[in-house]
Specification:
79% helix; MaAIMP_sms
């Protein structure tokens, strides 16, 4: 793979896992009312 492809792949992985982590932290601090 080219360097640009690797950089874009890493960026996409960070965006996905970073968003997932932020969502989990947000739900921990403010749980959904049932």
């Amino acid at each position: 793979m080219s360097t640009g492809a690797i950089v874009m792949m890493i960026a996409a992985i960070l965006i996905v896992w970073g968003g997932l982590g932020l969502a989990i932290l947000r739900l921990r601090k403010h749980p959904d009312p049932e």
